[in-house]
Amino acid sequence: MQDKATISYDGKAADYPVIIGTEGEKAIDVGKLRAQTGCITFDDGYGNTGSCLSKITFIDGDQGILRYRGIDIAELAEKSDFIETAYLIIWGRFPTADERRAFEARLQEHAKLPESMTQQFQGFPKDAHPMAILTAMINAMSCHHQELFEIRNEADFTTATAILLSKIRLIAAYIYKHGTGDSLFVQPSDASGYTAQFLTMMFSWPGKRYVADADVARALDLLFILHADHEQNCSTSTVRMVASSEANLFTAVSAGVSALWGKLHGGANQAVLEMLQGIKDRGDSIESVIAKCKQKDSDFRLMGFGHRVYKNFDPRAKIIKVACDKVLDKLGKTDPLLQIAKDLEKAALSDSYFVDRKLYPNVDFYSGIIMRAIGIPTNMFTVMFALGRMPGWIANWKETNENPKARIYRPRQIYMGPKLRSYEEAKKG
Ligand code: CMC
């Protein structure tokens, strides 16, 4: 295989090294392009741009493959749990039994929020969007852990990781309680297991302790595993971008939460449910929804469909679809929105608009049905995505922070604005 590519421009040609990844992915290293040709690359939306070399997650979008640290997502979904998967993603290997016990003890140690952080909730309007509060509260961790601004060693990193992974649960539970108008915040739970503990924090009220059903906790744990990392998506790239300036881990992750919020990214899970509910409430036919996507002047999209990388199927969506039926069965519930989702999927997958553009259900298409069945309100869905994505953000921050060759992320641009003009000329308009 060729290990260099030749680029010629304006009569000059230069060779550029070709980097080949573990799974055969190829990249032309254009690091010297500007010096050698005077040109930069232009790649709107970064669809062809590799921003880093990473050992964390592999995706082959054409084959529908997703692997964390070399292990297929379906195998992890079947055999692992969120904390083991988080450890794998962050440290690159499974924990030994002792390491796992020690890590869980660290999570337990950091389950509470300091009183001053709890009081901050009073400053947020009751109807504030949960993602706005989450961003602020994760960033507030920087105020309370200034000793971790600089991660000097593995012990500092483990502490910061335990703080983020553990405290986000109580923050999420408090956000929910705050939104319901209840100011009596629950205490960290003593239930067993990361996700069961979270559910207990979320749904317990003073004098009424919620005990999570094992299958329900497992279903949410599965969602967390499936969301745990996804290579250079918008929020993870944001975390790396912020990390590249040597900003601290908490503030970098908070930036990731902001990036996740948008409806083209993590916010899609809320948008899917709202779309399905709207279809049900208005009594729209499936045909009319599909037709609306295809209208030339319409910016309507089938939320939970399509992906920048997956062009065959999203392996996470396949797993979630099966889990949906199981959870509803277990809870003895039916959900009319699940049937609408299935009908939409069937119609879209046999429609040339979607087939030609390789648009398939993504992770967000069915995840909301599971969360709704568990009792999680729609506006909290993206917060659940953030809980799941935390290990991926931390691992990507770590990789950036530990790279001795890392440089600040600083893309260039092509300026298309006005040419040089005087102040007076510009005032004239
Ligand atoms: N419904 C209808 N048409 C669509 C959709 C959709 N969901 N997604 C893409 N298209 C069309 C789009 O209009 C365009 O058509 P044309 O070529 O005629 O202009 C074509 O497909 C390519 O779309 P694109 O916007 O260039 O694709 P992209 O790779 O830039 O965007 C995406 C990817 C995920 C933002 C997009 O598919 C989308 O908006 N999906 C709906 C939102 C969604 O579900 N987001 C969650 C993504 S998965 C979770 C995560 O990891 O964030």
Explained architecture:
With 429 residues, this protein is mainly alpha-helical. The protein folds into 3 domains: 4-65, Single Sheet (Rubrerythrin, domain 2); 74-261, Citrate Synthase, domain 1; 268-374, Orthogonal Bundle (Cytochrome p450-Terp, domain 2). The protein has 19 helices and 6 strands. A 3-stranded antiparallel sheet has the order 1-2-3. A 3-stranded antiparallel sheet has the order 4-5-6. A hairpin with a 2-residue loop joins strand 5 and strand 6. Helix 11 crosses helix 18. The N and C termini lie far apart (57 Å). The mean pLDDT is 95. The structure holds carboxymethyl coenzyme *A (CMC). Carboxymethyl coenzyme *A binds at residues 45, 230, 233, 264-266, 268, 293, 301-308, 357, 359, 362-364.
What name does the CATH topology of the largest domain carry? Citrate Synthase, domain 1
Q: Tell me the helix content.
A: 40-55%
Straight-line N-to-C gap: 57 Å
Please name the CATH architecture of the largest domain. Answer: Orthogonal Bundle
Which H/E pattern describes the elements?
A: EEEHEEEHHHHHHHHHHHHHHHHHH
* Range of strand content: 5-15%
The geometry reads as globular
